[in-house]
Design goal:
Elements lengths: L7 H11 L1 H9 L7 E5 L6 H7 L4 E3 L6 E4 L9 H4 L3 E3 L6 H5 L7 E4 L6 H10 L4 E5 L3 H13 L5 E4 L3 H8 L3 E7 L13 H8 L2 H17 L1 E11 L8 H10 L3 E4 L8 E2 L7 E3 L9 E8 L21 H7 L11 E4 L2 E4 L13 E4 L1 E7 L2 E4 L1 H6 L8 E4 L4 H7 L4 E2 L7 E9 L2 E10 L1 E4 L9
Parallel strand pairs: 5-6, 5-8, 6-7, 8-9, 19-21
Antiparallel strand pairs: 1-3, 1-4, 2-3, 7-16, 9-13, 10-13, 11-12, 12-13, 14-15, 15-17, 17-18, 20-23, 21-22, 22-23
Length: 454
């Protein structure tokens, strides 16, 4: 076993949990290299098309249709396709929870413990621009990383909040069709991947996190509509954080029932509670995970969209209307809001009554009004398709101007490309990166400084 300060107490618990033969197989995984994975953004591209385009050496994750392994010596975060939001870097087992929650376009979805966004980005892609995704994380700094990843993926029908679950329950009530609770946990399943998890485990073990998990689940159940589904997941092995949490939830909330998750090759069922799903690193090519799917009894209510006729808005500023005339993406003017010069496109089913929350974002940030002009934002660019904007320029990935654009430099146009005047959507291989403003033979860079290539 590699040098790791893993306590004898933990090892004894794993021996008891697995039995001697499986325990020995589990120990051998610490001699293996950790695995690296990426998940393709199906909102922008199919997995088949992506594998044709990329130079990365990929192998499919067998149980995730858009998941792939890549080699540890590759640098996929330093690739223009990453900046185009075509994929998310994620440990293979961690891709599983979002894949098991059956999201339908138009659903109202809550990702309760969402940062840094690995699961939220997949939930948002499944919505296909319809319905509402509320992504929450109690940590404001982590929620900022969450917001960036959602906007990088081009997901506009979002609300990003940073609140305790109790306050969300007070604001929303029984509102969501689907809820994902990827609960904070002791992280036993990640010891091979991240040695720092071992240090954290010594400070706060399973019993500490079990108390937090019980409280989160109580709040989550109260926010689920009748007929709705709740997926609970952790990256730990302990019974008290997994099956015991589910068993307690079922005992306290009689309107909840456990829905059996299908097993796939290498996956295991629950321990002492059938219907759950466990992933062990000695059985699959991934780290440790636990999942359980719950349903609230009763018939689902019909979705109620907001009543647009009762929400009359003042006419849009002329400069904003002029810019939007260049956009063919379907938009309803009644959902456009201007607040402190920032322009937002609110999601379908946006609960305007849910005030008093710490919102980092409400909907798609279109841009900003600036002294008689409108300047479009980075998130707007990422949510567009090239054919949805009047003036577009696309470069091949090998074109050195792609990296120069991502670094924030002014770009000179080649003869056949110009002249270009006014706002332009800059793309790589047909996938948007951001906006620029043409001045004839050059493009003034408008790529968001906080996202620049370092």
């Amino acid at each position: 076993m590699k040098e790791r300060m893993i306590s004898e107490e933990f090892l004894n618990k794993m021996n008891d949990l697995l039995g001697q033969e499986e325990y020995e197989a589990y120990l051998k995984t610490f001699e293996e290299e950790r695995l690296y994975g990426l998940r393709v953004n199906t909102l922008k591209i199919t997995p088949e098309k992506f594998t044709e385009m990329t130079a990365l050496k990929l192998k499919p994750v067998p149980w995730i249709p858009n998941g792939f392994y890549y080699e540890g010596d590759e640098r996929p975060a330093k690739d223009p396709y990453y900046y185009a939001g075509l994929y998310y870097l994620q440990e293979p087992s961690a891709m599983t929870p979002a894949s098991l929650l059956n999201i339908v376009p138009g659903d109202k979805v809550l990702d309760l413990c969402a940062a840094p966004g690995g699961k939220s980005t997949e939930l948002g892609a499944k919505l296909k621009g319809k319905g509402l995704l509320v992504s929450n994380d109690i940590s404001s700094s982590r929620a900022k990383a969450l917001l960036k990843n959602l906007e990088l993926w081009g997901i506009g029908n979002i609300c990003v909040t940073s609140e305790e679950p109790k306050k969300l329950k007070e604001a929303f009530g029984e509102f969501f069709d689907k809820i994902l609770v990827d609960a904070p946990c002791s992280g036993e399943g990640m010891f091979r991947k991240d040695g720092d998890m071992v240090k954290s485990y010594e400070e706060h073990g399973p019993e500490y996190y079990a108390g937090i998990q019980r409280e989160i689940m109580d709040q989550a159940v109260d926010m689920l509509v009748a007929g709705g589904f709740l997926l609970y997941s952790t990256c730990t092995f302990s019974l008290c954080e997994n099956e015991d949490i589910i068993r307690r939830t079922l005992e306290l909330h009689k309107d909840m029932e456990l829905i059996s998750l299908p097993l796939f090759e290498g996956a295991s069922g629950g321990i002492s509670l059938s219907g759950c799903l466990r992933l062990f690193p000695h059985k699959i090519r991934g780290e440790g995970h636990f999942m359980a799917l719950l349903k609230k009894k009763g018939s689902p209510a019909d979705h109620k969209a907001w009543e647009q006729e009762t929400r009359k808005q003042p006419p849009l500023p002329e400069e904003l209307s002029d810019f939007l005339s260049m956009v063919s993406m379907p938009m309803e003017q009644s959902r456009i809001r201007i607040k402190k010069d920032m322009v937002y496109y609110l999601p379908e089913y946006f609960p305007e009554y849910a005030g008093g929350l710490r919102y980092l974002r409400t909907g798609l940030l279109l841009g900003e009004m600036k002294k008689g002009r409108f300047e479009p934002g980075q998130a707007f660019a990422m949510a567009l398709r090239p054919e949805e904007f009047k003036q577009t320029i696309s470069w091949e990935k090998q074109d050195e101007r792609v990296i120069r654009y991502l670094k924030g430099e002014t770009i000179s146009l080649k003869g056949e490309e110009g002249p270009l005047k006014g706002w332009c959507l800059v793309c790589v291989e047909g996938f948007p990166l951001g906006f620029a403003k043409g001045s004839g033979a050059a493009l003034k860079n408008k790529y968001y400084p906080g996202w620049r290539w370092q």
